[in-house]
Write a structure and sequence with these properties.
The complex is a heterodimer of chains A (411) and B (360). With 411 residues, chain A is mainly α. Chain A has helices at 27-40, 64-84, 87-111, 117-143, 168-181, 212-219, 223-231, 234-238, 244-273, 279-305, 315-318, 323-332, 341-346, 353-358, 367-380, 390-403, and strands at 335-338, 386-389. Chain A has one domain (78-403). Chain A is built from 16 helices and 2 strands. The radius of gyration of chain A is 24 Å and the shape is globular. Chain B has 360 residues and is of the alpha/beta class. Chain B folds into 3 domains: 18-121, Elongation Factor Tu (Ef-tu), domain 3, CATH 2.40.30; 137-264, 3-Layer(aba) Sandwich (Rossmann fold), CATH 3.40.50; 278-358, Beta-grasp domain (Ubiquitin-like (UB roll), Roll). In chain B, strand 14 and strand 15 (337-338) form a beta hairpin. Chain B is globular, with a radius of gyration of 24 Å. In chain B, 49% of the residues are buried. Classes of the chains: A mainly alpha (411), B alpha/beta (360). At the A-B interface, helix 1, helix 3, helix 5 and helix 9 of A face helix 1, strand 4, helix 3, strand 11 and strand 14 of B.
Chain lengths: 411, 360
């Protein structure tokens, strides 16, 4: 006898109502009550109520109960989006992927005949756009798991690899886990200055920091390499928190990835372009496109947590942090960029940094819709909601970089 | 072929981190570096609530044997759902599935599919297939259980004059009987094929408690290799009859019934009452733990000494994803119970809802 597991739909009823206990009699009431409390409970280390050792100054005026209520309001915003999320969102990300790939192949195609000046300008611009879109709206967000809910292996945080020199898996660890969990906690979140820049007065000044503006200016055009080195967590290795094997493994992964990236942009594309005598021009084109992307990504990312108005935190402020406090920290530690729809897209919706930090795995196309609600909550609870146009935020960031290059004034 | 592969490798130098297929998919959606897809070529309504969907699979599909089934991935509200469907097309032709609307996924397939749509596919499998050597056959089917058998009949009857097939198909009414006209035509045309439709709406269920009904419909049923496909009860009754006959007839081997091959629509692990917890099996680690309905699977695994990938432990970083093999989990944040084989679940915010098998 053959028994084949063929389930032509009997499993359609596969999402039994969690509120319908199967048992009868007196157990029903108990089970139903249990379901109700559990549906509210959020897992993880964060408590529903209570308070951290120290509440950040910007939120010091809030009572424990107010913070808990704020947490519930933000949970409700998230649940609302989760309920709406569906085929239009899926269509959005697929359209973006198509547009990005279209830009990428047309840009590269134009570079193949880039002896012609117009073709060079067109090719370089298209490729720059493609790379920006790929890194920001696609890569960053897909690697956050924002699209995992679709269960499409082609658009999934576990399979995606991006056009950026650092391997996706290394970045996911330092970014999704460390940075998003410890946002702006000095000593925990190394994104505060990336182990290179002094970005907060709490960070100890050394003469090395005099070079702050120079380092930053040099970092911008090679930003992807800065991130790649940062993701190796050399500091952790030096201080014994990362094993040698782990470092070697990461180095190998980076080497393989870098070789592929190099080959594509600086060997294969120019080599094909040589057929039309455009080899050198194509090389300049890909170099420029990578640099443009780097400068742009650097600018956008630095606007996320460094402009005037964003707060940093001490470890005491996260000790005993509740879910509501976690939300508060994400909001007052992040800054948005205001601008047009196109600008939001080009930043990969990181212009909605506050909303992204509150809900890192909600699809990016929904942040714009959430933003007014979050802003309203901040206003009601008397919390800062930092936002401004790109140039202002970039200027503010640079001002901080210059200021913190110098030692703190003696009191 | 080898040259093609070399070409693809050369092209990937230019497309990395994408594969050349990812670029080609801009022009033809069947291309994918990662997953088998098919394009729907034709949709034919069969009854009021069933339809046959013909599709042209992309590279990587292998031709099906008559009677096999395939996993089909469909998108509902942007979310991929996988279900298994028997292939109803004869062997050697482009595959087709015949789907009856029984739930959300099958409903969407029957009502919402149009030519040009993309189906996600897994290669055909299953050993509910025709015997290697020709022998007289008896097919017992109920409802949508006709689909794999239809593939067998279409493969065998028109092409093998030496075949000898009897089909007894039960359905609620004539209007519910899938392929009724085609079966009648085949029976007219080919003397080696006989079909009996049994409508339970008029005559009640086919009675398998004794051999009487079967003796009347197909007197030589004991001499035939039998195939049965249909709902659970139908198959259990059939099986019971064959077993009983075999026992009774043990001394007189001549009247023993022939072999019975069954295609069973087994459901996956039954979900618990949403909040019950259940037995968690870490398949690769070969460990089983009883878990309650409130503890994240991540903690369950760690407590059991399984090397669990982990990250933020609060459901934001997606570092802890593990494929679900079977069973259902409850999202501790929303209370939603969900689970499809192969689905990647966030163990830090998911608890067992009934028995759960994880691929770790």
């Amino acid at each position: 006898m053959t028994i084949v597991s063929n389930t032509p739909d009997l499993s359609d009823a596969d999402t039994p109502d969690a509120n319908t206990p199967a048992v009868g009699g007196s157990a029903v009431d108990v089970a139903a009550a249990k379901v109700r409390t559990a549906a509210k409970k959020r897992p993880g280390a964060l408590a529903e109520s209570g308070s951290p050792l120290v509440r950040p100054p910007a939120a010091a005026h809030l009572s424990d109960e107010q913070v808990a209520e704020l947490g519930r309001e933000l949970d409700a915003i998230k649940d609302d989006i989760l309920a709406k999320r569906g085929s239009s969102d899926a269509a959005y990300i697929r359209r973006m992927i198509k547009i990005q790939r279209g830009l990428e192949i047309s840009g590269r195609a134009a570079l193949l005949v880039s002896k012609n000046k117009t073709a060079w300008v067109a090719g370089t611009s298209l490729l720059s756009l493609a790379k920006i879109l790929e890194n920001m709206e696609l890569g960053h967000n897909i690697l956050h798991g924002q699209w995992d809910w679709m269960r499409d292996p082609d658009i999934h945080s576990t399979t995606w690899e991006w056009d950026f020199v650092t391997p996706a898996r290394s970045w996911q660890h330092t970014h999704n886990d460390l940075h998003h969990r410890w946002t702006n906690v000095i000593g925990k979140d190394n994104d505060v200055g990336y182990n290179l820049l002094r970005m907060d007065p709490q960070q100890k000044w050394t003469p090395f920091n005099l070079g702050n503006p120079v380092y930053n200016a040099l970092l911008a055009p090679v930003f992807e390499w800065g991130i790649a080195i940062y993701d190796l967590e050399l500091q952790d290795f030096k201080e014994g928190r990362k094993s040698k094997e782990a470092l070697v493994r990461d180095l190998k992964a980076l080497g393989r990835k870098a070789l592929k990236q190099f080959t594509k942009d600086y060997a294969a594309t120019p080599a094909v372009a040589m057929l039309t005598g455009s080899g050198k021009q194509a090389l300049y084109g890909t170099l420029t496109a990578n640099a443009v992307r780097n400068v742009w990504a650097h600018a956008v990312i630095f606007c996320g947590h460094f402009p005037e108005g964003t707060d940093t935190f001490t470890e005491e402020m996260v000790e005993g942090e509740t879910r509501g406090d976690w939300y508060v920290r994400q909001m007052i530690g992040s800054a948005n960029i205001s601008g047009s729809k196109f600008m939001h897209l080009m930043t990969g919706n990181l212009s909605h940094q506050i909303e992204h930090h509150l809900f890192p795995d909600l699809p990016s196309n929904r942040y714009g819709e959430v933003a007014p609600k979050v802003q309203e909550i901040c206003r009601r609870y008397g919390l800062p909601y930092t936002t401004g146009p790109l140039l202002k935020q970039v200027g503010s960031t640079w001002a901080k970089i210059f200021k913190l290059a110098l030692p703190p004034k003696k009191a | 072929m080898i040259r093609l592969r070399k070409l693809a490798r050369a092209a990937s130098l230019l497309t990395t981190p994408l594969a050349p297929e990812d670029i080609l998919s801009l022009f033809n959606p069947v291309f994918s570096a990662r997953q088998l897809r098919g394009v729907v070529t034709r949709v034919v309504p069969e009854t009021a609530d069933s339809a046959t969907i013909f599709f042209h699979p992309g590279r990587g599909w292998q031709a099906h044997l008559a009677g096999q089934w395939a996993r089909i991935g469909v998108e509902l509200d942007g979310v991929r759902h996988w279900r298994s469907y028997s292939l109803s097309a004869p062997a050697g032709q482009d595959p087709a599935i015949t789907v009856t609307d029984m739930g959300a996924v099958s409903g969407a397939l029957v009502r919402g599919t149009k030519p040009g749509d993309i189906l996600f596919l897994a290669p055909p499998q299953g050993d509910f297939v025709l015997p290697e050597h020709p022998r007289p056959l008896l097919m017992l089917t109920a409802g949508s259980g006709i689909t794999p058998v239809m593939s067998m009949i279409r493969t065998l009857v028109p092409h093998r004059p030496d075949s000898d097939v009897v089909l007894i198909h039960t359905a609620r009414t004539a209007a519910d009987a899938i392929f009724r006209e085609e079966l009648a035509e085949l029976a007219d045309q080919f003397p080696n094929f006989r079909v009996t439709h049994w409508f339970t709406g008029d005559r009640g269920r086919l009675d398998f408690t004794s051999a009487a009904d079967l003796d009347r419909l197909c007197p030589d049923w004991r001499q035939r290799a039998a195939y049965a496909c249909g709902p659970e009860d139908f198959l259990n009754d059939t099986e019971a009859l064959w077993e009983a006959e075999a026992e009774d007839a043990a001394p007189a081997a001549a009247v023993r019934p022939g072999t019975l091959t069954i295609e069973r629509f087994t459901t996956s692990l039954a979900a618990g009452a949403g909040h019950d917890g259940g037995l968690v099996t870490f398949e690769a680690s070969d460990r089983e733990v009883e878990a309650d309905g409130d503890t994240p699977l991540l903690d369950v695994g760690e407590d059991a000494g399984v090397l669990m990938p982990s990250g933020c432990r609060m459901g934001i970083c997606h570092s802890c994803l593990i494929p679900l093999r079977a069973g259902h989990v409850r999202d501790l944040r929303t209370g939603e119970v969900h689970g499809e084989p192969g689905q990647l679940i966030q163990t830090c915010v998911s608890a067992a809802a009934g028995p759960v098998n994880l691929d770790l």
